[in-house]
């Protein structure tokens, strides 16, 4: 399965050796844990529970534990729930251990990435087709955005880090390291593919020019100011019509690249299908189109060699004809969608939790395709 992680997309030079890791801890973990437990608001939690339909004695996996808002509601929804909670961030792992103390014998905290999950589950004796429900709440957590030292937020000045794995892999490169070594062509690709940034060429050129003047971009404010100087005539608005910083998409692109999020999500969707029972429920919450596209194409069976097809199914050649059985064998899916259309937060929820404004919920039931 290691080869699967290299499927989407490939770059040259710096991309060859980046496996991505995290920040040495320069902030109080206890303070962050306490703050998150008090302030975290899980997104679309009622819709998540309605899709998962937890029952007494069932087993679930929360693939992105974060601050544990969804996990706690799952545990409270039915007696004797067994819950495996996974997160790559050591701060989240600390919160998970506290939740395990509150629900003794029901919660198993797991520290690792999606690609590490099979080994972690094997150590607990969990086999394929044995899980009743799996939840992905993707994207960056509030605790990562709110701590300046993590380097995720353009609005908080701190070191340009962006690694999610805490002190687990201190030798792995930061966002600042990427900007110091990546070539211009690859940086344009990163910004376009991962950030969907229209000004990718201008921003990449500005980064190269800063490098030629021996200016190393080491803080979030330095990168934010550089991007703002390039996009000076452009005003950007979010879905609530509020002004957003012109570097927001650049930060998103670097974060996704540094943490290998696309490949990890692709791998995570494959792992979820392997471990769910037939009839088990999968629920995903995505926060940008790249994540949602990966989830959607896995659910629809638009996957080639364990990676999503770069083209949607609507792009077809009308001059070609294939036998129906051949088409079904190539584009089969072991998922049955619970909702025909994607679900989004209500106006009321967005007003109380604006950070959830971009959420898209997709849910599916695992089935067995007749041709498999």
Automatic annotation (TrEMBL):
One of the entry's Gene Ontology molecular-function terms is:
rRNA (cytosine-N4-)-methyltransferase activity
Task: Enumerate the transmembrane spans.
Answer: none
Signal peptide positions are none
Swiss-Prot/TrEMBL keywords? Methyltransferase, S-adenosyl-L-methionine, Transferase
List, alphabetically, the Pfam families matched: Methyltransf_5
Q: Which GO terms describe its biological process?
A: rRNA base methylation
Instruction: Name the family the entry cites.
Output: Belongs to the methyltransferase superfamily. RsmH family.
The name on file for this protein is Putative methyltransferase-like protein 15
Species the sequence originates in: Cryptotermes secundus
Organism ancestry: Eukaryota, Metazoa, Ecdysozoa, Arthropoda, Hexapoda
